[in-house]
Amino acid sequence: MDFLSRLEREIELLPEWVLSAAVLAAFISAGLLVHRLAFSVLQRLVGPKDLFWRSLVTRTQRPAKMVAVVFGLYAGASVAPLTSSQAGTLRQVLLICCIILVAWIMHTAMHIWSIVYLRRFELDAEDNLLARKHVTQFRIMRRIANSLLIVLAAAAVLMTFENVRQYGVSLLASAGAAGIVVGLALQPVLKNLLAGVQLAITQPIRIDDAILVEGEFGRVEEITSTYVVVKLWDWRRLILPLNYFMEHPFQNWTRESAPLIGSMMVYLDYTMPVDVVRRKVEEIASRSVNFDGKVLNVAVTDLRENVMQIRVLASAADSGRAFDLRCEMREQLIDFVQQKFPNALPRLRLEETPSTPASPHH
């Protein structure tokens, strides 16, 4: 009893800030101990096959430790000999920290879940339509969810301050013209946000789609919550807002499938046998690695004053191979005509009528 009474007297003689610091340190230690025990238990419960939960437990170790420290300080604030203003300020700071940490954990959980889910799809596969569909949906929805999470966390932090809370209530009560002005000012942002949701659902474009937009050919490289990055054929980047694809027409060459039919126009003289051209096209296609064997057609599509127009159709597995196949067809056809039928090349005929006497200087 003497020892306890003497200890109590010594404690009473200590400054209040020392006692407060000691109490808070003790509660922080208790929170860290609880976190360590809970983390070890979760590591044992999560099996090696549960990739999502194992990654979530590992990646959220640091924010969870900080949450344990926050709860320890929050519990210690009610025990430590603090003044009412000090305790209130400390609780508000801890509440803000808790909101930020919870938002951090939710962001990490969404990131891990999207990565684990998208691991089953391969964009490098030859037939990657399903992979592009899911990757596009998840990337757009993840960016929108992260934006909403940041907005909600910021709103929750601001609502912890009494003055800001009252200002928000009065602003909502007197919306009127101010609400209209704010709505008009935020119209482009809201437009792109809604366009992003619509694009994720309807999917007129996907990641790695081959598209023709603004007279340029390229592939969709990135889709953010506000704009789309198109990598053009010469490695330039075309940046377009999301609502562009909802309001303007464009060509999507890989909307449902990657195979395409390439068309080539050849202009030859009327003396050129069409069957010879058809056999040569079949020979070129049979030797080409770009031809997929599905569509091959040769037809005379127009007769002009001096030449006939021959259209050659050939299909390929994707847009890149279709372009290479078209170039290959043109090069080999023109080389064949030059060597075997040089007179069939387009030319202008000038004939002299027999009744007209020739000039001595002709």
UniProtKB/TrEMBL annotation:
One Pfam family, short name: MS_channel_2nd
Keyword field contains Nucleus: no
Domain Mechanosensitive ion channel MscS: 189-255
Record GO cellular component, one term: membrane
Gene Ontology molecular-function annotations: mechanosensitive monoatomic ion channel activity
Parts of the chain that traverse the membrane: 17-42, 63-81, 93-119, 140-161, 167-186
Name the record gives this protein: Putative transport system permease protein
Signal peptide positions on this chain: none
Highest taxon listed in the record's lineage: Bacteria
Keywords attached to this entry: Membrane, Plasmid, Transmembrane, Transmembrane helix
Protein's UniProt keywords contain Methyltransferase: no
InterPro entries per the UniProt record, alphabetical: LSM_dom_sf, MscS_channel_2nd
Taxonomic source organism: Sinorhizobium sojae CCBAU 05684
